[in-house]
Amino acid sequence: MTRVPKANWAGSFHYGFRDCLYPSSVEAVREVVMRAPKIKTVGSSHSFNAIADGEVALSLADVPIDPVIEGDGRQVSVGGHCTYGELALFLHGHGLAVHNLASLPHISIAGAIATATHGSGDRNGNLATAVSGLEIVSGDGRLVKVTRGDADFAGILVHLGALGVVTRVTLDVQPEFQVAQCVYEGLAWDKLLANLDEIMALGYSVSVFTQWGQQAGSIWVKRTASAEDWPADIHGATRAMVNRHPISELDAQNSTDQLGQYGRWSDRLPHFKMGFTPSNGEEIQSEFHLPRKHGAAAIEALLSIRDKFAHLVQAGELRTVAADELWLSPQYHRDTLSFHFTWVRDQEAVNAAVGHIEQALSPFAALPHWGKVFTERNIGAKYEKLAEFVRLRDRMDPERRFSNPWLEDVVFGSN
C-alpha cells in the first residue's frame, strides 16, 4: 500500500495528496521529477500551512542519509531528509556539533533551511546560515550543486520548496560543546520591557515564554560552559527549582533538562527531547519576525490587543535571531525578535486572532515564518530580493513542477 501523507505532525493541517512516491536513490529522484507534471517534497511534516501541499508527494525516506565528515572535520555532508536529532547522534560520535538547533530536534534539515527555521541567540543565525553546500534536483531533473560563494547560493537556501528537491546538505560544524539551562519564573511585563535587550543577551540562547497574561512569564537561559554562577533571580524573576515545560500546565518529562546541569549541546539547545512527542502535539503554530529595534514597542502593541488572542495561546515565545544574507530569510539584513505562538487547535478562531496580531505588528515590518499560520497574502512582495528569486526559479523550474496555489498566492503574488 502506498504511504500517502495525510496530515502534518500535529493533525492541524490535512494534505490533499492522492499519491506519494518513494524513490530509493538520487538518480531515482531525478527520474521521478522529470516524469511528474507537478510534485511536492514532504519531509517531517512540521509545517502548518499548504507550503508543501499538492497532488503528488515525493518522500526521500527510502534514500540513505549517508552522513560523512568532510573538510578536515569542519563540515558534515548528509541527506537533506535527515533530522537534526539523527544528525546530532552522528556528530556526537565524532565530537562535533552544529551552531544551533530549533526547539524541536524532530524536524528535517532540508525542510528547516527551506523555511528559515531557527533557534535563538543574539549572535546565532537561523539554521540555514550553517549551510556551506547544497545538492538539489531542479525541475528538469538536473542535480545542481552550489557552495558558499556561488552566485545563486544566497537565493537557493531558503527556497520554500519552489526550486527543487534537496537531496544533500553540507553544514559547518564545530567542536562539541556543553550547555546548561535554567528557568526564571515570575517575570513582570514592566521588567521585560525595560530590560528586553539585556534579558535576551543573558546566554548563548535565550527564550521568554509567555501566555500573554498578567505576568510576562519565564526566562529560559541556555549558557555554554563557564565559571559564571546562576543568580537566584533576574529582574525579579526567580530561579525554578524543578524542571518546567514551555506550556506551563504540562508535565516536564518531555522537556530537555534544566536546573543548571551541563550536558551535551543537543540535549539542551532544543526545548524538547528527541524521544518524546514535542510540545503539546495537538496545536497550531504561528510566528512573526521583526527588527530588534522595534521589540519593546511591538510587545506593547500586542499587550494592547491581548484580549483578542490570549485565550487561544498554549504558549508564546520570544526569541532573537541574527541577521543574514539569504534572500528569502526574514532575517535578511536585520537582527530580529521573533514572536512565536502555540495555539489551541481551533483553526477558525486562530485565523481571526492572527489577523489581529498581523494588524498590530504591521507598523514594525513584521514577516511571518514561512511554514506556520498567517493570513496575509503576497508576502513575497515584502522581500527586496523577490525579483532575483523569481529569475532563479525561472531557471531552475521553468515548468513550475514544484509550485502550488499557496506559493503562487503567498510568495509570487498571483491571483
From TrEMBL:
The keyword Kinase does not apply. This is Dehydrogenase. PANTHER family: D-ARABINONO-1,4-LACTONE OXIDASE (PTHR43762:SF1), L-GULONOLACTONE OXIDASE (PTHR43762). Residues 13-176 form the FAD-binding PCMH-type domain. The keyword Kinase does not apply. One of its GO terms (cellular component) is membrane. Gene3D superfamilies: 3.30.465.10, 3.30.70.2520, 3.30.70.2530, Uridine Diphospho-n-acetylenolpyruvylglucosamine Reductase, domain 2, Vanillyl-alcohol Oxidase, Chain A, domain 4. InterPro entries: ALO_C (IPR007173), FAD-bd_PCMH (IPR016166), FAD-bd_PCMH-like_sf (IPR036318), FAD-bd_PCMH_sub1 (IPR016167), FAD-bd_PCMH_sub2 (IPR016169), FAD_lactone_oxidase-like (IPR010031), Oxid_FAD_bind_N (IPR006094), Vanillyl_alc_oxidase_C-sub2 (IPR016171). It comes from the Bacteria. Keywords: FAD, Flavoprotein, Oxidoreductase. GO terms for molecular function: D-arabinono-1,4-lactone oxidase activity; FAD binding; L-gulono-1,4-lactone dehydrogenase activity.
